[in-house]
Amino acid sequence: MEVKDKNFTAGDMFEIKLSSGFGYMQYVYSDDQYGAFMRVLPGEREAPPEIESVARTKEITSVFFPLRVALRKKIVKKVGLAPLPAGISVPPMLRMRGPMLNDGKPVSWWIWSGDDDIRKVGSLTPEQKTFPILGVANDTAIKEIIEGTYQLD
């Protein structure tokens, strides 16, 4: 369920320290079960970038992230506010794997569009294959996604 979070505004930009440089995420909304839904943006940057330029880039993926904890532990820091790109839906359409076969392939998939709206699909359509995978990523996973060392599917 989408919740209003008085601490965050849609479009808030956050910086995370990478092995070399910094990476960026953009806050979209909060879900009472999964936490903050974030756009994970591409690129490792050495110098602080122009935030609106970073926000205009196509995200690598979008994931739920424990933003409050990461801020409290100083894992991320808020660095600005930029408009969300057009076409961002709240809640988003996400995909979840169903049971797996011995070869690691899913028997079926589920499509989640917020709250209790979950429906089973056998195989994914080309459009559904573009939906991010429903999940919560920690700071290590976020860093690996930005650095290109994390396997998303």
Write a concise keyword list for the protein shown above:
9 strands, mainly beta, 6-stranded antiparallel sheet, 13% helix, 3 helices, single chain, 153 residues, globular
Q: Please give the number of β-strands.
A: 9
The share of residues in helices is 10-25%
Cα-to-Cα separation, first versus last residue = 25 Å
Number of helices: 3
Basic shape: globular
Q: How does this model look, in words?
A:
The chain has about 150 residues and is mostly beta strands. It is built from three helices and nine strands, in the order E-E-E-E-H-E-H-E-E-E-E-H. The protein has helices at about 50-55, 65-70, 140-145, and strands at about 1-5, 10-15, 20-30, 35-45, 60-65, 75-80, 95, 110, 120. The strands form two sheets. Strands 1, 2, 3, 4, 5 and 6 form a six-stranded antiparallel sheet that branches. The protein has a three-stranded antiparallel sheet with strand order 7-8-9, with no helix packed on it. A hairpin with a 5-residue loop joins strand 8 and strand 9 (about 120). The radius of gyration is 16 Å and the shape is globular. The two termini are about 25 Å apart. The model has no long low-confidence stretch (mean pLDDT about 90).
Summarize this, please?
The chain is mainly β. It has 3 helices and 9 strands. Helix content is 13%, strand content 34%.
